[in-house]
Amino acid sequence: MNVRVALASAVIGLSLSAAAADPLPRAEPESVGMSSERLARISRTINALVENGRLPGMVVAIARKGKLVYYEAFGWRDKEFGAPMTTDTIFSIASMTKPLVSAGTMLLYEEGRVLISDPVGRYIPRLGKMQVAVVKTGADGRQVIERAPATRQMTIRDLLRHTSGLTYGRRSGTLVQKLYPRASVRIATTMTAEEFIDKLGTLPLAHQPGTVWEYGVSTDVLGIVLEKVSGQTLGTFLEERIWKPLGMSDTGFAVPVQKANRYAKMLPHDPDTAERQRMVLDSSKPTRFECGGSCAVSTVGDYLRFVQMLLNGGRLGDVRILGRKTVEYMTSDHLGPEIHNPIASVEPGAEGYGFGLGVAVRRETGIAGVIGSRGEYGWGGAYGTYFWADPKEELAVVYMSHAHGPARMHYRQLMKALVLQAIEK
């Protein structure tokens, strides 16, 4: 074992929270109705996962009633090189980019520059003429795609709640899904924004707009709308209007060279298959455009400030980002009974959840496969990041790891149980 690894091994499992300034004022857990003893179960569980080679490392932050009660780092930022995890570690947050872009859209909505009911074709004419796929079986028994007119254009609201008819490509998906790009990061690393829109314009929609919740490239299109309306790049707009005002100094669309040593790495090998692992998106390198669906990086502390802002009704300290009623609207369920909602096929445990304008929203205390409260909202990222806010319990939780694959779904359910069991009153 080399010296770097030996020294790092001495601190594995220890909290290294001194590495980053606290994102919110601290309080003893008991002062806000949580148990220190029960919160310690989080540490024991994550340490065991790290020691057993299941996780590279993780950073976890919990705030209740606006106070930080838990902020810890575990394991390795880069196990292969013996670098321990610290709370200022930067992660690729994948689809946790979507709520940031959605909040940016609501800023423009408040200013009257975009209406939720606006047709997307008003801003991107190429997408105003899309038709809808109709899959039929030909005389030879093979399925073929025909096209039918859309009953209406997709709207900004459809992009926000994933009812646009746009989808993600899936290797084992439907005939229509196989036509689409497989992931936002693959789009942003291989196409410009213009090329992406041109490609979409040649494809059929998977469903009539407003009829089916279908996870896909909607927020990537939304990011391009924001650029057209604001006259800025997506990153510049979000930096000026959300990230800088909230003090999110480590959030952006790439990891700067001077911060590269703080960027988290995956385990060198998959713990289940032993295959060599690598990030699909290397955020130390710029993409061809700033994709709103999956391309941002952040830290747990930065993202917690964003979540607490939402939980506070649009304000953090003296800074107001959104109006209270705007946040209420954004974090309410927007999937009526007429919309088919297969969200649990994407997010196991999410039975009984609907979807708001950029976030999943829990409809009932029961039904779902995870513990929680009616009205809570949140979303996760493909590399192993997740957040949720619980207005009833005045609770904001963010955790980040670079552990993708099916295991990340297990950790989402596990962390819900570990955090919520620590609430005493």
Q: Can you tell me about this structure?
A:
The structure is a single chain. This protein is of the alpha+beta class and 425 residues long. The chain contains eleven helices and 14 strands. Helix 3 (97-110) packs across helix 7 and helix 3 packs across helix 8 (234-243). The longest helix is centred in the N-terminal third of the chain and has 16 residues, at 36-51. It starts with a helix and ends in a 5-residue tail after the last helix.
In short:
This protein has helices at 3-9, 36-51, 97-110, 156-161, 184-190, 193-201, 218-230, 234-243, 300-311, 324-330, 407-420; strands at residues 57-64, 67-78, 83-84, 91-92, 132-137, 143-148, 297-298, 315-316, 319-320, 353-355, 360-362, 377-381, 385-390, 395-400.
Keywords:
425 residues, alpha+beta, Beta-lactamase, eight-stranded antiparallel beta sheet, two-stranded antiparallel sheet, 14 strands, 27% helix, globular, disordered N terminus
**Unreliable stretches covering 5 or more consecutive residues:** 1-18
Question: What's the SSE pattern?
Answer: HHEEEEHEEHHHHHEHEEHEEEEEH
- What helical percentage do the residues reach? 25-40%
Q: State the end-to-end CA separation.
A: 47 Å
So how many helices?
Answer: 11
Largest sheet: 8 strands, antiparallel
Structure classification: alpha+beta
CATH class of the largest domain: Alpha Beta
Backbone CA Rg? 21 Å
CATH topology of the largest domain: Beta-lactamase
CATH superfamily of the largest domain: DD-peptidase/beta-lactamase superfamily
Total of domains: 2
Strand tally is 14
Shape: globular
Question: Order of strands in the sheet with the most strands?
Answer: 3-2-1-14-13-12-11-10
Average of pLDDT: 93
Q: What is the CATH architecture annotation of the largest domain? A: 3-Layer(aba) Sandwich
Give the strand content: 15-25%
